[in-house]
TrEMBL record:
The keyword rRNA processing does not apply. This is tRNA(Met) cytidine acetate ligase. Its main location: cytoplasm. Catalyzes the formation of N(4)-acetylcytidine (ac(4)C) at the wobble position of elongator tRNA(Met), using acetate and ATP as substrates. First activates an acetate ion to form acetyladenylate (Ac-AMP) and then transfers the acetyl group to tRNA to form ac(4)C34. It comes from the Bacteria.
Amino acid sequence: MIATGVIVEYNPFHNGHLHHIRQSRKETNADIVIAVMSGHFLQRGEPAFVDKWTRTQMALASGADLVIELPYVYATAQASDFAKGGISLLEALNCDFFSFGSEEGSITPFLNSYSLLQEHNDTLQQLVRNSIQTGISYPQALNIAYKQLIPNNEQSFVDLSKPNNILGFHYIEAAYKIQANIKAVTIQRIKAGYHDAIGIDSSIASATGIRKAVFEEASIEGISSYMPQTSFKGLEEWQYTNASFGSWEAFWPLLRFTIIRHTPQELSTFAEVTEGIEYLLLSAAKNSENFANFMQQVKSKRYTWTRIQRMLTHIFTGFTWERLKSFEQPSYIRLLGMTENGQKYLSANKKEFTLPIISRVASSDDAMLMQDIQATDLYMLALNGPVNTKRMGLDYKTPPIRM
């Protein structure tokens, strides 16, 4: 059986994701599509729009055969570590291919760019350091340095100012670094850009645009044409049973409390909190009644919105620098859901997997898994408040979804 992997958030699952799964299956002639999906907190430092089991159901209904959880430590990390976690899990699952969406749409420019940066890595790092000293963010400095290294020849190189291209490059980089056997494929991202708002003349919209529309309109009715019917039904069910969709604005009271209850010295121990920003975080939390106002006080040229949100995620979940440094690579395969076809793949190939499969979390005390379980409880608490005691310990109560 040919297995193709994708590394995803599905926040929420929409028609663009459906196109990616279908094209990935077609391009690789795959019998199985395996989705490694983030849990309750995401790479841009945000709470998930809906929980991981709702998103698992959306994925299984629209073409994924297996959904595996990307552990918190990687799901909330910078792009290189996010990619490392995802690619390592797909390699452990014995996938033949990994497929990612990109603005580029062709794999050759990614391979050329990787070779270029490997060959000139020392020069690249010096150029980055020089740019950062001017006060710009690391991603901006990296892109400037990269452009300075591109030779004037007939080779094609990928545009690393585009968000999906950047992530795709890190997937390629991760595969080389771990000496993976898995092969890379990229699918052209169509119509909607990563940050684009929804448009009336298309059935494709970005997840960012969909979430923005829901929060601005306080309704999901306007987004039904941008996602499969099964995904929209999942959102309807979520809205019926939950106080809100996941967002920092909704979580702000509890996030604010969490920041204010710590001293600056304590805040500095949490992952990604650096260079004295803990004082600004504390001051802004005390003086902000909502999340938007807080971010306006904290954001700067040096600290991107995404980087700040990742700091806040780690503060909220209690994830420290010490704990981050204790994890070197994924240590398990956490099964969230499967189709009948996916179950057949597991049965036929499990002896070849290089990591243990966890379908019942009670059977493991892995420290990385305990972080995922804690993240779930905190997400549920912030979502519906302290009266929502029935949703504590959901990781122990929820078996893998079968479809």
